[in-house]
Amino acid sequence: MYTWNSFMYSLCKHGRSKEAAEFFDSMTSKGLKPDIVTYSTFLHEYATEGCLADMINLFNSMEDNGIVADCNVFNILIDAYAKRGMMHEAMLIFTEMQEQGVSPNVFTYAIVTAALCRMGSLSDAMDKLNEMIAMGLQPNKVVYHSLIQGFCTHGDLVKAFLK
Predict the structure, then answer these.
(1) What pTM did the predictor assign?
(2) What is the per-residue pLDDT across 37-68, written as a single tens digit (0 to 9) for each?
(3) Residue 147: how many CB atoms within 10 A of its CB?
(4) Of 57, 36, 35, which is closest to residue 46 (Cα–Cα)?
(5) What span, in angstroms and rounded, lies between the C-alpha atoms of 132 and 143?
(6) Which residue, 20, 70, 112, 132, is the most exposed by fewest CB within 10 angstroms?
(7) Neighbours of 41 (CB within 10 A)
(8) How far is Cα 68 from Cα 91, in angstroms, rounded to an integer?
(9) Which candidate, 28, 30, 48, 47, places its Cα nearest to that of 38?
């Protein structure tokens, strides 16, 4: 499976997603079952291309085929929505992730915090920072940079340094 996944990843990485999809179809027609890496590759590609309906359909098909989503898969989905300012959808996925027993990681919180700051939802972003710390996760520079930039952009330079 490693070789198949590597090949499909390379095709997607070089803008040849249609060929990767044909390769995927060929793989499944030979009786090979896609794994979480296969699905992650295509979810990321759909997210990058902005094909969110295809992304969610693939996510649902992944679950229908017995593949359990991990934190990376949920991060792809959350990031896709967050980058497009669709925070309601991003937060629904964030909630679904936790309901399925998958704990958010530092990258999940970095995605959510950055998006909330871009939207000017600084109070919500601070809530996510506090939630992250309460979970025992150490915020990374992306989280802090997003918060500082958010507070500076949205007119509260003092809070950027006091928080």
Answers:
(1) 0.86
(2) 989 988 998 999 888 999 999 999 998 889 99
(3) 23
(4) 57
(5) 10
(6) 70
(7) 23
(8) 19
(9) 28
